[in-house]
Specification:
By secondary structure, the chain is of the alpha+beta class. 18% of the residues lie in helices and 25% in strands. The two termini are 18 Å apart.
Length: 224
């Protein structure tokens, strides 16, 4: 088992790079944006003794930005890096859930059938304008009131306006590593897409089926 760092978490400093232990000995390189947003790069590496990156991140390696919760930061195994970050302009268009909620049955009729709650009254979402760091009272005009479920370009080209939790975000990053590109199980569930079998652990996490140990994150419990 990997040794724990003496101090977990980092003091937030916009523009600084960091390493996040994704799962096991797999690490990803990231950069702090305006709090609580982080930027992750498609730069994964396995390090048995902690991260030792040789090259700074590049603009063409951007994976996705994500807002994170205090719960995520409490669990996260983060290390500050001295590598220079990139000049990054955050997206200004985001996907929002439809108001309401519904229960969804995933993989019905199979041994992997799971029930989970989606905070959207129906499949899909809307596209709206949002500038991160602009404050809660800033206008958020609607750009597309209803994103068609078959509009893959819009769906895949924009991030969900959600605050990410542990270990959901870690598992999403792990899946990005597995697929070699940006994937988001949360968005695929929201838009009622067919889910690949690789999503089973994410679905178990989302439906609270099992424990951190079952999902591969038992060594990431925060110190008590």
């Amino acid at each position: 088992m990997m040794a724990r760092p003496a101090r977990r978490g980092l003091r937030w400093k916009t523009g600084e790079t960091f390493s996040l232990r994704v799962k096991g000995d797999l690490w990803v390189l990231g950069q702090m944006l305006v709090s609580p947003f982080m930027l992750f790069f498609n730069r994964f590496e396995r390090f048995a003794e902690g991260p030792k990156w040789q090259e700074p991140p590049h603009a063409d390696e951007v994976l996705f930005p994500a807002a994170v919760t205090r719960q995520f930061l409490r669990f996260a195994d983060l290390r500050r890096e001295t590598l220079p970050g990139i000049d990054y302009t955050p997206p200004t268009a985001w996907i929002a859930y439809h108001h309401g909620g519904r229960k969804v049955i995933l993989w019905p009729g199979t041994e992997h059938e799971r029930s989970t709650l989606v905070l959207s009254q129906r499949p899909g979402g809307r596209l709206f304008e949002q500038h991160i760091g602009s404050g809660a009272g800033a206008p958020r005009p609607t750009l597309m009131a209803e994103i068609p479920l078959n509009d893959d370009a819009t769906i895949d080209g924009h991030e969900l306006d959600v605050i990410r939790l542990f270990p959901n975000l870690n598992e999403r990053l792990y899946l990005c590593h597995i697929f070699g590109r940006n994937v988001d199980p949360e968005k695929d569930i929201t838009f009622d897409r067919e889910l690949p079998s690789e999503y089973r652990t994410y679905v178990d996490i989302r439906s609270q089926h099992g424990s951190l140990e079952d999902w591969g994150y038992g060594d990431m419990r925060p110190p008590t």
